[in-house]
Amino acid sequence: MPAAFSILDPVALATYLQEHYALEAPISCELLSFGVNDTYLLRTATEPMVYRLYRPGWRTAADVAWEIALLAHLQEQGVDVSVALPDQAGTHQHWLEVAEGPRLGALFTFAPGVTPRWAEAKSAQSFGASVAALHDGMDSFEDPGGRFRLDLEHLIDSPLATVLPLLTGRPDDAAYLADLGARARERLNELALQGLSEGICHGDLHGGNVHVGDRGWTHFDFDCGGVGWRAYDIAVFWWSQSLGKAPANLWNDFLNGYGRDRLTSADHEALPWFVVARTLWLLGLHAGLRPRVGSASSGDHYWQHVLDFLRTWETEQLSATKGTQQVT
C-alpha cells in the first residue's frame, strides 16, 4: 500500500543527522509539528537545532537554495535570523528517501528566546522595528532567481481556484469569496500602479515566527518568503492580531515601530486589502493540506469562522477606507 505522507522515526533521524553533520553526542530528536512541513527539534550536547523536512511537492531545490542564501545574507548584514547549517560535505540541503518518495530536508540553528506575548505596546513596537531592520537587510540581497513571487496569482487567484470547488454546498459563500477576491485583485492592481513598495518579504510575519530574548528578536521560518509587496508582508501581522481579536492598538504600535513613513500612501491604503489577500491565501493553503491533515479540520465551523471574519472586516475596514487612507 503506497503512502501519501509519512512521519519519520525521530530516533532514526537523529542517527542520520549525527552521521551527516558530525553532531556532538548525546543527541535526542522529537517531532515538534507537522502540516505544511515536518519540523523536528534536535538536541545535542552543545546546542539545540531544528530540522525541517519539506512536504513533497511543496518546494523545489531552487526554492530552498534561495531561502538558505537569503538567510546567510541576512546573517552577514547583522540581522538575527535562524540560518541553515552545512553538513560535513558543505551541503545545506539534501534529499531523504522516505515512504512517499524523495523529500528535501535542511538543518537550521535554533532561534534563542521565547515566543512573544502580544500584551504590551512595547512588544509590538519593538517587533515592528525588528521587521524594519529585516527589510533593510533584505534590500541588499542579490536575488539569484528561482523563487516564486508573492503576486496576486499566488495570493488570490491560485488559492481561490483551490477553495471554491470545496464550497459547492455553500453557493452563497462561494459567490461572496469569488466576488471579494475579484474586488481585492482590482483594488490592489490599481494601488500597484500608484506605487506599492516592493522587495524581498518574509511572507509569514504573523508574530509566531520570531523569538525574543536577551539578544533581541530572532526571525525564523522564511519558507513562505519571496519577492512581493512590503505592505503585504506587514499586513500579515495585522491579520493575525485581528483574527485573534487582540487589542486594536497593537497594530498601531507595530506600525509606529516599523515606521509609518517607510510606507507610501498606496501602501497604507493597500494594507486592509492585503489582509483579505492573506486570508484567501491561507484558505488555499489549508485546502491544499486536506489530504495531509484530513478534511475534518475544515468543516462547517471552520468556514463559518473565516467567512464571518471577512464579512466583518469588509464592514469595519474596507467600507470605511474606500478612496481614503485608513490604517487604524
From TrEMBL:
* One Pfam family cited in the UniProt record for this chain: APH
Family from the record: Belongs to the pseudomonas-type ThrB family.
Question: Which residues belong to any copy of the Aminoglycoside phosphotransferase domain?
Answer: 37-261
Protein known as:
Phosphotransferase enzyme family protein
List the InterPro entries hit by this protein, alphabetically: Aminoglycoside_PTrfase, Kinase-like_dom_sf, Pseudomonas-type_ThrB
Q: Where is the signal peptide?
A: none
